Amino acid sequence: MTAPSPRALAWRRRGAAFAAGWRQFASQRSGLVGLGLLVVIVLLAILAPVITDQGGLDVTEATGGTMAPPDGEYPLGTDRSGRSVLLLTLWSSRVSLLVGFVATLLSIAIGTVIGILAAHYGRWVSAGLMRVTDFFLVIPSLVLAIALSTVMERGIGTIILAIGLTSWPSAARLVRAQTLTIEARPYIERSKALGGGHLHVITKHVLPAVLPLVFVNTTLAVGSAIVAESTLSFLGLGDPDPMRPSWGTMLRSAWLDSAVLAGAWWYLLPPGIAIAIVVLAFTMCGRALEAVLNPRLREG
Amino acid sequence: MRSRRVALGIALLVSALVTGPLVASPGAVAAPEAAPNAKIERANQAPTILKVGVTQEVDSLNPFISITRTGTDILRTAFDFLTVYNQEEQKPIGSLAESWETSEDKLTWTFTIRPDLRWSDGEPLTAKDVAWTFNKMLTDEVARTANGSYVAQFESVDAPDETTLVVKTKVPQATMTSLDIPIVPEHIWSKMSDISAAPEYPMVGSGPYIITEFKEAQFTKMVANNNFWRGKPKVDELHFIYYRNADAAVTALQNGEIDLVNKLTPQQFDSLKSDPNIVLNQAQNRRFDEILINPGAATADGTPIGDGNPALKDIKLREAIATAIDTKTLVERVWSGYGEEAAGYIPPMFKDFAWSPSGDQKREFSLEKANAMLDEAGYRKGPDNVRLDKEGKPLNLRLLAHAERTIDEVAGPFIKGWLADVGINVTVQPVSDTQVNEATTRGEFDLAFSGWSANPDPDYVLSLQTCANRPNAQGTGGTPDSFLCDEEYDALYTQQLQEFDRAKRIEIVKQMQEMLNEKATLVILGYENALEAYRKDSFEGFPLQPRENGVIMNQQGYWGYYGATPAGEGPVPQFNDDGTITDGGDAQTSDAAAEEDSNTGLVLAIVGGVIVVLLVGGLFVARGRRKTAEDRE
């Protein structure tokens, strides 16, 4: 029996760490509930084309009454054009989740790169990058996002860019702080003394060490990205394609069609509750992860 | 920690003090019910006020400048005109002018102004004021901002004596009895150095009310004009209150904060049906909505302008697009049935001039037929079921829409859907109103939502399609609408403007509409109804214009506001052709229909509310748990 290679050892170590982390995570009920909700919602969103017919989103094919209350055929009633609100809510999850994920990845990627670079190189690089960060931090991000999405052509890409480009500064600050504490540790000094270059130090030591934090931050940021997408869509800056609704555009049409005055709660509540549930699920997951990765937050 | 508890205690105490009296005395809740009666009793002493809710900001109250619906609506009640459209059927009748005659060559018009007219400040109102107003517009470009088109062909204006006004025109002008120009007092306006300046209040006027106060984006207050020549109105004050949000205006009407509101959406209109104190008025509107199809935009001198898809120059393609748009569904879905199906360019409200296609001219909605037309015209289908144009490029069209207009927002997906079914890919582009206006004037569109409010005299909307209305090279200086520019159409346009025989003019106008239908540079979507509502407990009613299916607000005259009748002071007056009053019947407004059972709605709303509370509660519980974890650290 030969001794396991260092690589295999490393993987074994990671597997054990993951298992321990999962046990920690599983011991928190809210985290589990959040994760369960997310799995169900993501599955529903992915399977939407399989279990339902996208043709139902086409207003010219709609058969329901105008803002008809829920009944057997339309469990959540219909919208102004006679489309099923349930179908709309289901399909909207696709755009909302997609924008939420991609925009968050974009924003975290920018934030991580800027944060690590600023902390690692220090001095004028840090000063320069941090001033840019401060600049974005003091501009109200909603205003900037609105300005961006007005200038560019309407569509999902624009929304993702607008949210991604405006929400990275806090991530950058966070990653920079974490990088600074890590770079102060002796093994980094040793690595440098042994001839490790910038690239080596950053990719082999700093990045793996900040990744858990980045991961938690991502989970928490998805929720706010989804809210940001809904806000922009509600303000009429979303994707105008009727076949790609989002919860924000649903709320917008409910508002435009005076759903409140008409008492059409079935038009207004589903997208609102959906946003609340998804954001809640991401928050619950994120908090549980945070507790796993940060021992100071653990119970007992 | 301690200070926090003290703060909590104070907060509790304060809230108890605030809510206490309300809880303690149930009588306070019942009080508002008695209010309406008290209101009627008080009417003898306190001034009666008609409070009108408007959802459009006033651009200016300067009669030479204002062009918005709300601004002109207010000014129409503050300044009288030479002639006014009658209440019955919107035909011009004398107002400041008692009578008029034209010379043989139709170039000289002599108006006789009523004697003994007075401005609201007591100064005499004579032909000199009218002449000054017209001459100011002839000499000062700024004064022509709002109504310049009416005086464009004026040669000279004179007032030989106090009751005679002589207007000479360069060419015969059929719109001389419908000059929509507010007449202003010379003794006030001639002293103003800047004619475009914001006016001072109270404004001296000659209409049924005078403007006394104006706060931008808040309100305009008017009081009854004692010197109005038809007599003082029954209402003492008229307030226009601005609401940024139409739903808020509707709620204000339900609460009795305002008495009258218009421009309701079908949903708002329906939601008011169950209120026993509110009377609804579904009126024919003078507006038409259309889709413009860019037939190859060009400037006034014929140079191509803009970036319209060249494929749309083909009339066959435009006809197919027009065939693939279903006005019936649009009326049903977009206007929830509160509208009329598309016919001619002039809305059916103007019975004389309205035209409707018959037989072969009529394009019945049929996707199969539209597909067949495109097949026949040689647009074969490419990949993804999108047809290819004559150069082999896929037919991708942009549809410019007003981002804030409900009609565009709701109708856009329908048009996209139908055109997709015939193999034309449409991208809806919602942009701001200004961007739509600029892009359509510069010809930078393929398809675009548009619409106009026609006047009883069709001249203006007809002029939009003429060659002369195309812009200059910079894309300004014209309102080209669909860039039609057709020699035959232009000839007919000139002919109708110079035709004084009404029957013959109607014939020409109908011919022009037939041409517009044929050329398919625009597709009429339909004519929405004007939806208005007022409180029955404070107002008996209002004279409608036209008398059948007419509107209360945004009239072509001042009848609605002038004849406003407070509750208990009925009947509502009806104005005859000569402007005199007959106390007409009571059938002027349709009463609110069927009471709806609102109980189920209430129950469902409560269920929804409980769900929300549970969700929010869940959120707090989750947060609370986390907090204890932190605290326990």
UniProtKB/TrEMBL annotation, chain A:
A GO cellular-component term linked to this record: plasma membrane
ABC transmembrane type-1 domain location is 93-286
Keyword flag Nucleotide-binding:
no
> Which compartments does it reside in?
Cell membrane
Biological processes annotated in GO? transmembrane transport
How is it placed in the membrane, per its record? Multi-pass membrane protein
Record field: transmembrane: 32-51, 95-120, 132-150, 156-175, 206-228, 264-289
Gene3D superfamilies membership = MetI-like
The principal location of this protein is membrane
**InterPro entries attached here?**
BP-dependent_transpt_permease, MetI-like, MetI-like_sf, OppC_N
Q: Does the keyword Protease apply?
A: no
> Which key words tag this protein in UniProt?
Cell membrane, Membrane, Transmembrane, Transmembrane helix, Transport
PANTHER family, from UniProt?
D,D-DIPEPTIDE TRANSPORT SYSTEM PERMEASE PROTEIN DDPC-RELATED (PTHR43386:SF1), OLIGOPEPTIDE TRANSPORT SYSTEM PERMEASE PROTEIN APPC (PTHR43386)
What family is reported?
A: Belongs to the binding-protein-dependent transport system permease family.
State what protein this is by name.
Answer: ABC transporter permease
